[in-house]
Amino acid sequence: MSDGSGSPFFPYSRMFLGIPILYIFYLSILQKYSTNKISLSIFGISILMVFSFKAYSLPNRINYIVKHNTGVVKVFKIKALCKTFDSLAMVLKNTNSEVLVLKTKRDEINYGCPALIEEMNTIHPSYEGRLWVYKNYMFSELNQFLVYSDSILNDPKVVSLGNNYYLIKNEKTTTLEAWYYKK
């Protein structure tokens, strides 16, 4: 009930879903021991207090989320995201790579790039939700592909392109599954 994050897509405010039930319980107890006028006054004042607190704290919370880019779903400016996607598409084209493989969870790249750039192919094998993409790339033989990883890749077949991007060139054709899950 209290699980959440600073993201508007998975907010902590979900834990307040039980408040109407608590109000009804509270009012039923008050009604038994006081008049309706007092019960409604207390109910109205408490709702006003909660609403005022939420209205006062909301702008600060939104600024914090955007500034620190916290949450399950990150907040990006559309122009910056499109610029990133265009540069990724250019790198894929220049390296003759068919797919960008993500070893770091970056859903904005994995799902955003193919949605905005038709010829862009991405996959994050550990979290891939698009089964058709998983089947298409994990078991296909690839000569080379581009990898995004927050950690340094220690592989003799790796060519670092900078900014956490690596080009994987295989001497012999191998499946992405064999490369990704190798020990």
Q: Could you give the topology of this structure?
A:
Blueprint: H1 19-33, H2 36-68, H3 78-94, E1 100-102, H4 107-116, E2 122-123, H5 131-138, E3 141-148, E4 158-162, E5 165-175, H6 176-180
Parallel strand pairs: 1-2, 1-3
Antiparallel strand pairs: 3-5, 4-5
Looking at how many chains there are and whether they match, the oligomeric state comes to single chain
Strand order of the largest sheet: 2-1-3-5-4
Q: Domains counted in the coordinates: how many?
A: 2
Mean pLDDT score:
79
Largest sheet: 5 strands, mixed
Give the SSE order as H and E letters. Answer: HHHEHEHEEEH
Question: What is the structural class?
Answer: alpha/beta
Name the features.
183 residues; alpha/beta; 2 domains; five-stranded mixed beta sheet; 5 strands; 48% helix; 16% strand
Characterize this entry briefly.
The chain is an alpha/beta fold and 183 residues long. The chain is built from 6 helices and 5 strands. It has helices at residues 19-33, 36-68, 78-94, 107-116, 131-138, 176-180; strands spanning 100-102, 122-123, 141-148, 158-162, 165-175.
